[in-house]
Amino acid sequence: MKPLLEIADLGVAFRTSSSLIHAVVDVSLTVSAGERVGVIGESGSGKSVMARAIMRLDDPRRTQYATSSRITLDGRQILALPEREVHRLRGDAVSMIFQNPMHSLNPAFTVGQQMDAVLKAHRKLPGRDRRARIVDALGAVDLPAPGDLVDRYPHELSGGQRQRVMVAQAILCEPSLIIADEPTSALDVTAQDTVLDVLERLSRDKAIAVLMITHDMGVVARFCETVNVMYGGRLVETGPVGDIFAAPRHPYTAALLAATPNPAAPARTLHPIPGTQTTRRGSASTACAFIARCPHATTLCKQAPALRQIRANHRVACHYAEELDLKAAG
How far apart are CA 105 and CA 120, in angstroms? Predict the structure, then answer.
């Protein structure tokens, strides 16, 4: 069975007045119908740029895709489509939930007016049917009194309610894929859990695939089935969440886990990752993305390792994936 979303050899660079900045380098991943897939990495790793490329949201005047790049959504080659057809896909076949709902919801319009604009763009329905569909979507994300909430403004809602409005807006046209870009980072723990519960139920009951972009290992463990770890614009490890959390095989994945607080062991010493990511300006580096910060790096790492399978559904981009004892690092 073919995957719903297939990204192959994706490269994304941004043109400046003097050079190129390589945000994403040679990324390949798949998402099946109804699957919950995570993409994790620290800020600047390229995960949000990769997600925006699926909907071609970045300015085409400054964005350059590698010639080998392919993004296929339900059989459609996204990068080959004219802008008019991509515009029709956004909010219909694929929807995006952004990090901060106050930046995505217009304070001058009610919740219902903003959701109605989505339906008008993609569905030919009379006004009464559109309103009923909006109320149903708000109810589906567990918002209280959805019939009244339609006529309220974003500033009248809590942060968790606004984020659930964004989820409701994303499911209005029953997309096959939802891209959730840090949807819980600005929420308290209770609101975060509610949003994840809603997304998980929608994925399970309606077979909606969710691509979760996050820097939070707890969100990945709680929500995702598969995780893709990104660093320096590249995928460095990918596989089932349980396998990677139990036995990471890339030094960066192990370092992320070692730097993550564990509520069950509050006295555990955290190990921050020394250094920062290098600027990906000019020509794309041919070395391992993590070489400058990796305690295990050797001269061999000056040649970027391929993302290769080391066991069932588990791939790692490290020359020493089978040799290093990384469990102790966590």
Answer: 17
